[in-house]
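Escalation from tier 1.

The customer reports that the assembly of two entities below gives different structure tokens on two consecutive runs. Tier 1 could not reproduce it. I'm attaching the input and our single run for tier 2 to review.
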Amino acid sequence: MSAIFCLLLFFLLSPLKVPAHQIPHCLIKGLPLVRNLSGYPQNNFGREGLSHITIAGAVLDGLKEVELWLQTFSPGSRTPIHRHSCEEIFVVLKGSGTLFLAPDLHMRQPAKPNEFSIFPNSTFSIPVNAVHQVY
Amino acid sequence: MSAIFCLLLFFLLSPLKVPAHQIPHCLIKGLPLVRNLSGYPQNNFGREGLSHITIAGAVLDGLKEVELWLQTFSPGSRTPIHRHSCEEIFVVLKGSGTLFLAPDLHMRQPAKPNEFSIFPNSTFSIPVNAVHQVY
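Tier 1 run:
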């Protein structure tokens, strides 16, 4: 990867128990429904080179179906090789890198992943259970 | 509304029939998996003042759970008063306006909606079935 880049990620969540008849204007008391993204707390979950911000999700908004993240990877850092039981959409705001994507969900032996260049103002999506890595 | 603004919207979709074992690198032949957002086709669905771009979704990507849209409303235009059976997250990229949101899902008579100012770099989410309008 040649530079820092930013990603927006959207995840489908497992169901959470939130009363269906109430409209939760915000689950965390004191936070407004409409919030300014400036000054949102960042986390790196112990992974060097990562900056993660949850823009909207289960904890802040009581969402049960979708989350929105903003992530920044420093040069040389990468996601793990991973998969998940939800769909994911990426929008690359800055920087460039490589997407590695397994060619099939039901391969019986290891195979070379497909490689795709990613660049500023590009978008791509990851199907459910597709093994992938962003580098 | 005082100015043009742009929104990103994320919708949960009804299930579509896409083979689960194949990883659809793109459902529309000839379109790459990683795509440049510049030059994406716009539509207004016959509504003056609206510009709509589907960044990722069912048709382009075979997504079954989530869509990502970029919308721009010209000054004075607005969404209909509406609701939907999926969650929605907004990120306001430019401009300002007002969000109208019904206070409860099970009201038995009309009531004044809650009003929230929206502004650049703000975010908010709409729960399932909550009646709302962005103005």
